[in-house]
Amino acid sequence: MPIGESVMEDKELLAEAVRLATESVENGWGGPFGAVITRNGEILARGQNRVLLTGDPTAHAEMQTISKAIQVLNPEAPSIAVEHQNESTLAYVARPEGSPDPLPERARMLQGCSIYISGAPCPMCMSAIYWSRMDAVYYSCDLEDTARIGFDDSFQYEDFERPLGERRIKIEQIHPELGANAYAAWTNRADRHAY
Ligand SMILES: Nc1nc2[nH]cnc2c(=O)[nH]1
């Protein structure tokens, strides 16, 4: 595993992200996006855009790399893979009996890590970066470069600046009293752990 690789410079790390991006394009797996997540100058995880391979619009380089980094840091964590038991129930793989609750540790997410990306992050990936609590983002091509090769990243940032009623996708609050039940279930849990 990459943990333990010798300390790498910014340029080397970015070059590795670009290598992953190019590999994805050459294999027809996805757009020209690759990423590495580092801690103390060492690579923790690598990822590349695999949207065309998987048909999954969330398979962006950054999302793939964040998931891998979390797995590397939490190898013993219960799998978040869901099994469809029936149409209305999702069962999570249970934590082994008696093992300590890893949530507080996991909730630190990727603090202390940085991400190097071939192109500036789209809003989805930037949100994931915020949620993962990374310290820094370094990218090579900017949003204008990305728009020029046909990707919507900068348009989405622009859309977020518009009032809700003027956005490209309809967004509207309906029945707030229903969701309030789930929110109450959360606030009623004494052992809740905000992340
Ligand atoms: N940064 C980045 N921008 C994208 N735009 C479309 N896909 C991607 C991706 O994987 N990463």
TrEMBL record:
Keywords: Hydrolase. CDD domains: nucleoside_deaminase. GO terms for molecular function: guanine deaminase activity. This is Guanine deaminase. It holds the Pfam family dCMP_cyt_deam_1. The gene is guaD_1. Residues 8-152 form the CMP/dCMP-type deaminase domain. It is an enzyme of class 3 (hydrolase). Its EC number is 3.5.4.3. It comes from the Bacteria. InterPro entries: CMP_dCMP_dom, Cytidine_deaminase-like.
